[in-house]
Amino acid sequence: MGFFDKLKKLNIFANFGSELTEDFYDELEESLILADTGMDTALELVAELRRRVRAEGIKTMEGARECMCHCISDLMSVGESSLNLSTQPSVVLFIGVNGVGKTTTIGKLGSQLRKERKKVLLCAADTFRAAASEQLTIWAERAGLDIIKQHEGADPAAVVFDAASAAKARKADVVLVDTAGRLHNKQNLMNELNKISRVIDRELPGCARETLLVLDATTGQNGLIQAKQFKEAAGITGIVLTKLDGTAKGGIAIAIAKELGVPVKFAGVGEGIEDLKPFVPMEFAQALI
After folding, report:
1. Is 272's pLDDT higher than 90?
2. Contact, 29 vs 42, CB < 8 A?
């Protein structure tokens, strides 16, 4: 199982008998809902499992377990799972509410990209939260990365302008942009992200761009609501799911992929600089099941 060994396993199939009865399907549905998949996703997965069990003539619980892993993996295989970093520079915007682990995720990803011999520039465009740029600076120092920042309260788009200029001058491969984590006023958020977007379009025309939404897996169904709002406001290309090592049940990842059609690209399962890895749907399904 590798990476997802750190995921708290629910072992959804553990308490079922050996027969594929109606009770089994009812209990499985309940277990999936308790694992934070949400009602609609649980119903769809169980219906798909029934269909495949009949079609493939599966008779054993082990066969059903393996089949369920494929059902989950298939449902989660939406969009492109790897980052598009095809231009020099490429830009990755990180969005999400405060406290989900955005800054930590940027530090970890920056460190990993540097190990891949990429020249990475961090951009501290979250100028509203006190100490946000200080926190990102600590990660920059830890990972040996350059950082562009301004004073607290500065215009985020101005910081992005500085970062774009620096990226061109220094021939950076990737610019990782931290943004303010506010959702209480969606219009403000949208205006701010649109302004940042216009600066990137003007200063780095044609650059490869990703907009990653960082979500705390422990928030369960609230995470899905957040994801829908951010998708409307910002148009996201991928999800980073953090805090999968603690009490998170993880099923929310399946719901997000199904409901939004957006791939989970990375998973965070710890505090260490190495504890951010590419998300592999089948490995995740095996850990969950």
Report:
1. no
2. yes
